[in-house]
Design a protein that fits this description.
By secondary structure, the chain is mostly beta strands. It has one domain (3-102). The chain contains two helices and ten strands; from the N terminus they run αβββββββββαβ. It has helices at residues 3-7, 108-113; strands at 9-11, 20-25, 29-36, 39-43, 53-61, 67-69, 71-73, 77-81, 89-100, 120-123. The strands form two sheets. A six-stranded antiparallel beta barrel has the order 2-3-4-5-8-9. Strands 1-7 form a two-stranded antiparallel ribbon. A hairpin with a 3-residue loop joins strand 2 and strand 3 (29-36).
Length: 133
């Protein structure tokens, strides 16, 4: 079995358009509004995407050159292509992935930034590693 399948994750092509993912990494929490294919509006980094920014999510890596395309994986590093940078942006290790229960239209994002909150759903891709005593 492939390590990323044991850790858990989601293939982007299995998500509906306008699905909203909350991706918690070691250092940041990203929000990704899926627009179809690998296209997403992503926010959550103060330098690269402080506001929703149109990016192409390439996939996830273990930190090397091998990329699992169009996949967001727990324990892996998310990699996305930003329109203002020539090299892909690589996040710290993904710790948790959630899908918001209430899908958000692009217009509703402005309301969220002004104080309205969307309640995250349950963890969709739980850590399947055995717990240590």
């Amino acid at each position: 079995m492939i390590r990323s399948e044991i850790e858990g994750g989601v293939f982007l092509d299995q998500l509906q358009v306008h699905s909203v993912l909350l991706i918690q990494t070691q250092h940041r929490c990203y929000t990704a509004v899926m627009l179809g294919g690998s296209q997403a509006l992503i926010s959550g980094h103060p330098q690269y995407c402080p506001e929703p920014t149109l990016v192409a999510i390439a996939g996830s890596t273990w930190g090397g050159s091998m990329l699992k395309r169009h996949f967001v994986g727990r324990g892996m590093h998310l990699e996305f292509c930003h329109p203002e940078y020539s090299n892909p942006i690589v996040t710290s290790r993904v710790e948790e992935i959630r899908e918001c229960e209430n899908r958000t239209s692009l217009l509703d994002q402005a309301d969220q930034q002004n104080g309205a909150q969307d309640v995250p759903g349950p963890i969709l891709w739980p850590n399947r590693r055995p717990s240590l005593p």
